[in-house]
């Protein structure tokens, strides 16, 4: 049996010396789709930040895509993030450049040099999210849903094993949220592991999947009807 792509054992997650979540034990296997739910302030974002190296893991054992989170050093974080695609609530597109140049910025920053290979990769990821025809648009010319599709495409540029989506539909209307989640589900169906933090229970009902809940300093699996 293959190793989990994420394994946490007896982990305590801190934010500025305050315990946010304790006794976190979790294994996520390749190709899973997992929701993280909970009220604002319950620890969802702190959990996600620990996984991509924004918060240090100081207590317990954690491994993600073959990186040891407890031993992660500053110089390792860019390499970790090349193997993890991160999608944020607020898109974080560069406002002064079009969609293609937003993508080029990431590729150049992660070591790509061949112009033809870069353009082919950009075309490929924009195709996957239905945004190929928007390559020359500026972010302000796109709707919120379109910007989030671009952000998802950007997260796919380095062919990550794992997608971490932190409230990716938080700023979107219900219909657009469902469309964005369909994109993430399709990416998952093609073999990517996805963890998505959300407070949108309507999406969970429409697209049911394994669900963990952050509550009272703990994180635990819940059945859908009780979320």
TrEMBL record:
Assigned GO CC terms? plasma membrane
Annotated ranges, domain ABC transporter: 6-227
InterPro entries, alphabetically? AAA+_ATPase (IPR003593), ABC_transporter-like_ATP-bd (IPR003439), ABC_transporter-like_CS (IPR017871), ABC_transpr_LolD-like (IPR015854), MacB-like_ATP-bd (IPR017911), P-loop_NTPase (IPR027417)
Q: Which GO terms describe its molecular function?
A: ATP binding; ATP hydrolysis activity; transmembrane transporter activity
The superkingdom of the source organism is Bacteria
Please name the CDD domains in this protein's record. Answer: ABC_MJ0796_LolCDE_FtsE (cd03255)
Q: Which UniProt keywords apply?
A: ATP-binding, Nucleotide-binding, Transport
Keyword Cell inner membrane on entry: no
Gene3D superfamilies for this protein:
P-loop containing nucleotide triphosphate hydrolases
Q: Which PANTHER family match?
A: CELL DIVISION ATP-BINDING PROTEIN FTSE, IMPORT ATP-BINDING PROTEIN
Report the sequence similarity comment from the record.
Answer: Belongs to the ABC transporter superfamily.
Sum up the protein's function in the record's words. Answer: Part of the ABC transporter FtsEX involved in cellular division. Important for assembly or stability of the septal ring.
Output this protein's name. Cell division ATP-binding protein FtsE
Q: Which organism is it from?
A: Flavobacterium aquatile LMG 4008 = ATCC 11947
